[in-house]
Amino acid sequence: MKRKISGDIVIAALAAATTIGMQSCSTDQQAPNIVIILTDDQGYADVGVYGAEGFTTPNLDKMAADGMRFTNFYVSQAVSSASRAALLTGCYSERVGIRGALMPWSEIGINPQETTIAEMLKSEGYATGIFGKWHLGHQKEFLPLQNGFDEYLGLPYSNDMWPVDFDGTAITEENPGSKPHKLRYPQLPLIDGNEKIEEIKTLDDQATLTTRYTERAVQFIEKNKKKPFFLYVPHSMPHVPLGVSEKFKGKSEQGMYGDVIMEIDWSVGEILNALKRNELDKNTIVIYLSDNGPWLNFGNHAGSAKPLREAKGTMLEGGPRVPCIIRWTDRIQANSECNNMAASIDLLPTIAAITGSLLPVNKIDGVNILPLLENQEDANPREVFHYYYGGELRAIRKANWKLYFPHQTRSYTGLTPGKDGYPGKLSTINIGLELYDLNKDISEKNNVVDNYPEVVNLLKRRADKIRLDLGDKLMDMEGPNIRPAGRIAE
Predict the structure, then answer these.
(1) What is the pLDDT of residue 23?
(2) What values do phi and psi take at 395, rounded to 5?
(3) Residue 218: HSE in the Cβ half-sphere, 13 Å Cα cutoff
(4) Percent above pLDDT 90 for the chain
(5) Cβ distance 331 to 358 under 8 Å?
(6) Which fold has domain 7-383?
(7) Where exactly are the structural domains of the chain?
(8) In which element (H, E) is residue 349 found?
(9) Whole-number Å distance between alpha carbons of 77 and 83
(10) Where does the pLDDT of residue 20 fall: very low under 50, low under 70, confident under 90, or very high at 90 and above?
(11) Which of 82, 208, 302, 405 has the lowest tally of Cβ within 10 angstroms?
């Protein structure tokens, strides 16, 4: 077990503990359970309370009615591995050396020197379990059991990283299909603990994943109901290829994507019901979010980021801004909405404050957003957000103002999307020095960079500060405080 705590951090953590956090960890009440449910490529508009069309999400809508819905919630980067590394470590993914999406042949993973939420809570006596997609390194030294989790069932990376064409046809030397590079991929391993227990070879196999993750999650709750636990359920869906069980196939008006979201919503309901059945619902914080925006070039097999601009793989708002709902019965005001900025990197320090846990010794970038959950007047713990992607500082936001720096990015706009699991084309566009007032212009249509020179200069100065810390490839600046990812031991 990794334990990286110093005396200074002990003092700082104790000083930062809030009244709620201290009460939660008192001897009169068991420390609160933590549940994080993470989906893959679910768009900002793909939940009923965010405007979903063609399918329903009654359990998520009820969760929002019982808790808080965030409208300005961000992930560190709009791509899988980077987003997941940031969530679990409380750091911009740049800081922990994880960029992009790790591949089955990647030789890096999460560094053992980083402290995950699971390790932080395990040190406080929590049971820890993950059931779903990992994507932080598939070699044994990078898997969940070596990074704070007691139990793991799931895929080590994305569900499209397999030698199968978009229609499920096996790709071989004789049948290279439409994606011949998939000859490089091994069969998808389903891992239990540290061992592969079977291979996911067909679309029918993919269709079982959401239910299997859910069943293990419920078992974990039942097994650990008498002690505090951290349950992490990072679904493989709705990342393509889509897979949905028979009980939800054909249930939505939208089509298969809607069916998949409805099954995920069912999964949320099963977890919430298990908490209630075991009288744990009032003392459990449940957090629901997506790892990034939708993969729009898959057309009817992708979600929606409306009214946001662009989607996955960009740092325009449709990429990193995601739906997020947090429920903590009797602690978070029911049916509340938070319009302040918050981010997935803020979950670790917030959970630390709530549980009285010690923060990592390594520098983190997250802030404690418990004042937002408590609806404290004038609370605004996250004043600035930095939009990094692949080593480039592409934008910065402070309050309602977002300033883009010149860069190239992918775009889905104006292109015919794919259909039924096949992708459409992507394009590349140039972004200039652009300023948007996101409170008035959520879709980023009106560039006002020439109208507010004082705002531009302020944001440029703030950007210079983070560049001295994490660097910026756009400026050919190295980041002196970037920590390396883990590498395979020789």
Answers:
(1) 42
(2) -165, 165
(3) 16
(4) 91
(5) no
(6) Alkaline Phosphatase, subunit A (3.40.720)
(7) 7-383, 386-487
(8) helix 347-355
(9) 5
(10) very low
(11) 208
Using the Cα atoms of residue 48, residue 244, residue 312 and residue 94 in order, give the sign of their dihedral: positive
399: left (phi over 0), alpha (psi -120 to 50) or beta: left
The interaxial angle of helices 209-223 and 256-277, nearest 10 deg, is 10
Q: In this structure, what token pair is assigned to residue 80? A: 């899988």
Q: Please report, as a single letter, which amino acid is at residue 58.
A: P
Q: How many residues belong to the chain? A: 490
Tokens representing 24 are: 């939660």
Written as six digits, the tokens of 13 are 């953590």
User: In this predicted structure, what is the pLDDT of residue 175?
Assistant: 87
Residue 63 parent element (H or E): helix 58-66
Q: DSSP code of 242?
A: P
What is the second-level CATH architecture of the domain 386-487?
2-Layer Sandwich (3.30)
Q: How many CA atoms lie within 13 A of 48 on its CB side?
A: 15
DSSP 8-state assignment for residue 434: E
Which of 266, 271, 156 is closest to 217 using CA atoms?
Answer: 271
Q: How many other C-beta atoms are found inside a 10 Å radius of the C-beta of residue 257?
A: 28
- pLDDT at residue 489, rounded to an integer: 81
